Automatic annotation (TrEMBL):
SUPFAM superfamilies: Histone H3 K4-specific methyltransferase SET7/9 N-terminal domain. It comes from Platysteira castanea. Functions as part of axonemal radial spoke complexes that play an important part in the motility of sperm and cilia. Its main location: cytoplasm. This is Radial spoke head 1 homolog. The gene is Rsph1.
Length: 214
């Protein structure tokens, strides 16, 4: 069912309202029979998108309300979250930053609602990876992440005004004689402290080896 403007060829063109066979509805702009321009699309499952369209795809800026109560507001490219946007998750966590192919990718800040902790740094395909800072209520960790876990050199900075330097080391997996063919659970990287200092300017970007090292 369609109620709205058409062009000389009889295609939907201009402003209109449509009910799709699957029960979804769209109200907004059309161009030559396709959703193009600004519009609001209501899904039968309770989801809703309001924003820009280009040739039937979400493209430009728009807000998507998901059925679980989460929502994304930001850039879209060909129906995917891409560019810059803010996502509010159903559990109250938020991510603000860069996206590519529907995933967190690039620079971004993720805030954990339960603890108030924040991850500020780099993401690769939805996973925390690269230089970052993990900020807690009375201290923070500055270092690098790999596969969502801190790894390598870093430091804890305490609000009382000192730092603990060290590194996260991936423990060597002990091989055990197992009957079942279960994949081993990857061991958590272990923090190995080296020294406590007053505040220093070291950052995870300073990875240049010192002269005489390497």
């Amino acid at each position: 069912e369609y109620d709205g403007d058409r062009n000389a060829e009889g295609e939907r063109h201009g402003f209109g309202k449509a009910r799709l066979p699957n029960g979804d509805t769209y109200e907004g702009e059309y161009e030559r029979g396709l959703r193009s321009g600004r519009g609001t699309y209501r899904f039968k499952n309770g989801a809703l998108y309001t924003g820009d369209y280009l040739q039937n795809k979400k493209h430009g800026k728009g807000v998507f309300f998901y059925p679980d109560g989460s929502k994304y507001a930001g850039d879209w490219v060909h129906d995917q979250r891409q560019g810059y946007g803010e996502y509010l998750y159903a559990n109250g966590d938020t991510y603000t930053g860069e996206w590519a192919g529907n995933k967190r990718h690039g620079q971004g800040t993720y805030v954990y609602k339960d603890t108030g902790s924040k991850y500020v740094g780099t993401w690769v395909n939805g996973i925390q990876e690269g230089p970052a800072e993990l900020i807690h209520l009375n201290h923070r960790f500055k270092g690098r992440f790999l596969n969502g876990k801190p790894l390598g050199r870093g430091k804890f900075i305490f609000n009382i005004g000192c730092e603990q330097h060290g590194e996260y080391i991936q423990p060597v997996q002990e091989k055990e004689e197992e009957e079942e063919d279960e994949p081993p659970v990857p061991a958590e990287p272990k923090w190995k402290a080296s020294e406590i200092t007053k505040l220093t300017p070291w950052s995870p970007h300073d990875e240049e080896p010192a002269p005489g090292e390497g």
